[in-house]
């Protein structure tokens, strides 16, 4: 079995929600940040879901996947979005 650095099979995907964190409300003296997210992503197979900057309800996804896993993720993600839009 070909394992990524996390030691977990590429078939696994861990989604972590940061939607409850008010990241875009931080102000360090120069206004709201353009983006806030994880500083480092050591392992593959993680998806962070967070509120995108702005107040329109958009979401931002930060992915850490092996390059060969991206097409499969894109396909499944697009299928699920299409299903939600019905």
- The overall number of domains is 1
CA-to-CA gap between the ends? 38 Å
Helix content: 10-25%
Structural class, by secondary structure, is alpha+beta
Strand segment tally: 3
The main β sheet shows up as: 3 strands, mixed
Pfam family, one: Transferase
GO molecular function: acyltransferase activity, transferring groups other than amino-acyl groups
InterPro entries: CAT-like_dom_sf (IPR023213)
Structure characteristics:
single chain; 86 residues; alpha+beta; 3-stranded mixed sheet; acyltransferase activity, transferring groups other than amino-acyl groups
Descriptive account of the structure:
GO terms for molecular function: acyltransferase activity, transferring groups other than amino-acyl groups. This protein is α+β, with helices and mostly antiparallel strands and 86 residues long. Helices cover 17% and strands 19% of the residues. The protein is built from one helix and three strands, in the order βββα. It has a three-stranded mixed beta sheet with strand order 1-2-3, with no helix packed on it. β2 and β3 form a beta hairpin. The radius of gyration is 15 Å and the shape is globular.
């Amino acid at each position: 079995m070909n394992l990524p650095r996390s030691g977990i099979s590429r078939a696994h995907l861990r989604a972590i929600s940061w939607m409850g964190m008010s990241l875009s409300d931080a102000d360090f003296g120069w206004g709201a940040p353009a983006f806030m997210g994880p500083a480092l992503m050591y392992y593959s197979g993680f998806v962070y879901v967070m509120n995108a900057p702005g107040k329109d309800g958009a979401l931002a996804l930060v992915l850490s996947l092996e390059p060969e896993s991206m097409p499969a993720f894109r396909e499944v993600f697009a299928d699920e979005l299409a299903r939600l839009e019905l």
